[in-house]
Amino acid sequence: ERLQFGHAAAARVAARLHSTVVDLGRHSTVGDVAASLGAQLEPLEPLSPALAGWLRRALDDAVAVLQAEPGRPETLVHGDFYPDNMVYVGGVARVFDWEDAALGAG
User: Fold this and answer.
1) Dihedral of alpha carbons 70, 82, 75, 30, sign
2) Which residue, among 72, 73, 71, 75, has the nearest Cα to 22 in the 3D structure?
3) Which of 5, 26, 58, 70 is an S-S bond match for 102, by CB 3.0 to 4.6 Å?
4) Reduced to 3 states, what is the DSSP secondary structure of residue 11?
């Protein structure tokens, strides 16, 4: 139940981030993000090839969807968004570690 709460909160925070329009001067492409996420899967491959394969296919599917919709507005992208970069204060999710933030397709 706690994990489901965490995932739901992360999804809400990501949705808010991706609906925010700002100019950071740094731009990130779908390819940049996909390459970064793909690299993060490498340590998982020897431990769980099936899970790593499933995650790679999911990443490929997400990239295909994003690249099939040109003209998407640029929005704020955290760049390193996962549960360890969130803390709950008074039941509200707060996100930190913004060093990889950029503009990207929302």
Assistant:
1) negative
2) 75
3) 26
4) helix
DSSP track, 14-59: HHHHHT-----S-B--HHHHHHHHHHHHGGGTTT-HHHHHHHHHHH
Segment 60-77 shows an average pLDDT of 76
Percent of the chain with pLDDT over 90: 9
d(CA 60, CA 45): 16
Q: What angle do CA 58, 51, 82 make, to 5 degrees?
A: 65
Query: Minimal CA–CA distance to 101: which of 42, 39, 32?
Result: 32
Structure tokens at 62: 């997400």
Distance between alpha carbon 23 and the CA centroid of its chain, in Å?
A: 19
Structure tokens given for 79: 């760049």
Q: How many CB atoms lie within 10 A of CB 33?
A: 20
Which phi and psi (to 5°) does residue 92 adopt?
A: -110, 130
